[in-house]
């Protein structure tokens, strides 16, 4: 039995991209996210931008932890 891939909105996609930073996505969520990203260039761009912001945040937070 296979799960049907739900069509996500851009808002749903944003929530999943942000959530994936803190908690692993389920296989179903990954499939839904990938399906949306294949068809939405705006969400692909937003995902890349979130990745850059998260990377910069990680760098800044690591600097703040140094003695």
From TrEMBL:
Organism expressing this protein natively: Duganella rivi
Limits of the Putative zinc-finger domain: 10-44
Protein name in UniProt: Putative zinc-finger domain-containing protein
One Pfam family of this chain: zf-HC2
InterPro entries according to UniProt: Anti_sigma_zinc_sf (IPR041916), Znf_put (IPR027383)
């Amino acid at each position: 039995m296979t799960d049907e891939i739900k069509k996500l909105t851009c808002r749903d996609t944003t929530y999943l991209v942000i959530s994936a930073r803190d908690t692993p996505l389920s296989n179903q969520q990954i499939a839904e996210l990938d399906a949306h990203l294949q068809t939405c260039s705006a969400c692909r761009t937003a995902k890349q931008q979130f990745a850059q912001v998260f990377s910069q945040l990680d760098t800044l937070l690591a600097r703040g932890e140094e003695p």
